[in-house]
Amino acid sequence: MQSLRGFPHCPRPWGKPPLGRGEMMRQGWRWALTLLLWAGVSFGMWQSAWADNGPHGGYTATTDACAGCHRAHTAQGSNLLVASSSTALCLTCHGTAGTGADTDVMDGVYLQRTATGAAEGVVNRGLKGGGFQYARMDTAWAGVTTPQAVTSAHLMDGSNGIAWGSGEIGSGAGATITLACISCHDPHGGAGGGNSPTYRLLRPTPLESGGGTVVLSDEDPKQYTIDAADGKYFGQGYDSNLYHAMASWCASCHDRYLATAGSGHTSSGDGIYAYRHISVGSGCGCHNMHGGPPATGNPEYRHEPLSCLTCHVAHGSPAHMGGLAAEVPWPDGSAAPAGDARSALLRVDNRGTCELCHDK
Amino acid sequence: MKLRWKWLVPFVVVGLVFFLTGTALADGGPHGGYTPTTDACAGCHRAHTAQGANLLTSSTTYGLCMSCHGTSGTGADTNVEDGYFLSTRSTSTEGEANTTDNSPLLGGGFVNYKSASVTSSHNVNGGITAAWGYGVARGSTANLPEDLSCASCHDPHGSPNYRIIKANIAGHAVSVSQVDESAKDYDTEQWPANVSNVCVACHGAYHVTRANSGTNNADDGSGNTDYGGDVSTYAHRIDMAYNYGGNVNPETTGYGGYTLPLAGTDTVACQTCHLSHGTSATMSTLATAANTSDSALLRLDNRGVCEVCHQK
Questions:
Q1: Which residue range is the domain that position B73 belongs to?
Q2: Residue A272 sits in which domain range?
Q3: Does A89 fall in a domain?
Q4: What is the three-state SS of A80-101?
Q5: What is the CA radius of gyration of chain A?
Q6: Which residues of chain B have a CB within 8 Å of the CB of A356?
Q7: Per-residue pLDDT tens over the stretch B87-130
């Protein structure tokens, strides 16, 4: 092993007398330490800004991460998983009793249950995506932040469901697909191409979505919880670039829900999804079509960019549906299930998401 | 001791005013009074699966309104197509306390009225834009800014006006005081004195309010432009006391068993002679000769509306 001790004497370029052996070694150590320090800081910052979290990506040649989820010879599930299914595996860390992540997606809350890393959310506050079983969402707009059982959620257990609006114009209500956590999230991270991370490990092309690629840039720094301490999910802010791209990403499965300004006045030609509320862009686009801002409308929201996430959460919502909102038929015309089951992952009870913007 | 309670008086007054105002301004059904978590939007709109513009569940405004208020509608007791009230049509109890089952609606009907086919009506199923006296002389028409529909006159999202009449119709501000909102009455008029205002928005040239307008067609120079400056013909005065010229009260006395409703207690309004939606009145011989053969939404056959007051 070569050491600095073996370095030859070098003339100093600016004409000063050559350094002695001891002085040269001291200089060398200084440079090496500076270099190491710089590299360490840079690497740390890069990790913080762009890394996929936990065992999800950023692997080195000698990574230990594989062992978190896989067994080479004693696996309990396909793909050599340590659990019987991919979803069961995800929940060993992200479930109610999980201990491997601060994001408890079943209860829709951020917890301080891992010892490592800086806080990426407010402890005991609701996750942006809501929850699959419970959520701390004030859907009643009444100042309640206690956990409530969700009334609608995306499937995540590998069962089949209809992806409403999937497919081309005129292709019916939607195709039946299988949904699990890994349908949307890539557990190995680096999904953005060139091993770059994506927002929440989201796949550019969700499984069974039928194609299309939408790369969602990761956020920096990560913030898993909503801004509002009072549990009001409506009005939650997102980066505008992510916000718009997210609508296109949702439309990977829900193709015909993607609608730009004017879609509420012009038919798409589809028999079911004919006239559609804008789901990407800005409400200003609508206002401009009518010659200026409307006389009504909540000024707090009406100029905000619009996305699917304006009204819906990604995982699940405890919103309640009553009266007319409980009787809305499904896109295929079926009436059941009705009631709270028609909450469609909305952020507010009934049609609060309409009223809070339109202020009729 | 007396002084101790005096401070409560303003609170009681404010409370009463608030209570009464809240009651008076209530709109019916899904039409207004929305809370932040209202379910009402879902009654008429779909965010992603709408079948008509403005995200309506029906392809037309008329179709949507009739899904509740039409012949086979089940969402409201007011059947405006057939022009009658029936409490068993819907779960709503609106107006049931003061309205008799099967009684004709105050506005008439769009298809039938009093069990007979209408002979004239406002065509609110789209396609009609021309309105008599809309910024032009009486006897002439001009086009409205948009096709006539239910939503041309009524604001489905509620309004400060009687019967959710829009606060602005065809570009004109409209004010029609609410008078029966605490206990709606769909078969006995309880109109405010300014109920003619809703008609004026589209038929301004017919709204002649100055005295002697039937004998003097000159501009009186008072700045009164209610009638659109139209001095081309003489016109019956509107929004006048019924007893002008010594007429009997057409609402309480009438003639030959026929009566006509007054606005307020004594005001002859447009609606005194005309129905807002449609009529089944029939016109014969001389009554068909004046300009058109239709019944002009009149409340009574031929010129019964003249005779009930004037009793010539």
A1: 41-103
A2: 140-360
A3: no
A4: HECCCCHHHHHHHHHCCCCCCC
A5: 26
A6: 36
A7: 999 998 989 999 999 999 999 999 999 999 999 999 998 777 89
Contacts of A272 in chain B (CB under 8 A): 49
Q: In angstroms, rounded to a whole number, what is the distance separating the alpha carbons of residues B67 and B210?
A: 43
Residue A179 lies inside a defined structural domain of this protein: yes
Whether the predicted interface score ipTM is above 0.95: no
Q: Is B88 domain-assigned? A: yes
Candidate from B37, B42, B49 with C-beta closest to A348: B37
How many Å apart are CA B50 and CA A249, to the nearest integer?
22
User: Domain tally for chain B?
Assistant: 1
The two structure tokens encoding residue B166: 């829009």
CA distance B11 to A262: 49
- The number of folded domains in chain A is 1
What confidence tens digit (pLDDT) does each residue in A28-50 have? 555 554 444 443 333 333 333 34
Q: Within A290-358, where are the H helices?
A: 308-311, 352-358
Q: Which of B37, B46, B158 sits opposite A141 (nearest CB)?
A: B37
Using the Cβ of B205 and the Cβ atoms of chain A, whether some distance falls under 8 Å is answered with no
**Within-domain flag for B285:** no
Residue A125 lies in a domain: no
In a domain, B66, yes or no: yes
- Burial of B147: CB neighbours in 10 Å, binned 0-12, 13-18, 19+: middle
Residue B60 within any structural domain of the chain: yes
Interval B139-164 mean pLDDT: 93
Residues 6+ apart with CB under 8 A from B152: B124, B144, B146, B166, B169, B170
Label residue B12 by pLDDT band (50, 70, 90). very low
Length, in residues, of chain A: 360
Instruction: Report how far residue B88's alpha carbon sits from residue B78's, in angstroms, rounded to the nearest whole number.
Output: 10
Q: Is residue A22 part of a domain?
A: no
B84, two tokens: 């009658």
- pTM value? 0.83
Nearest Cα of chain A lies from the Cα of B128 at a distance, in angstroms, of 20
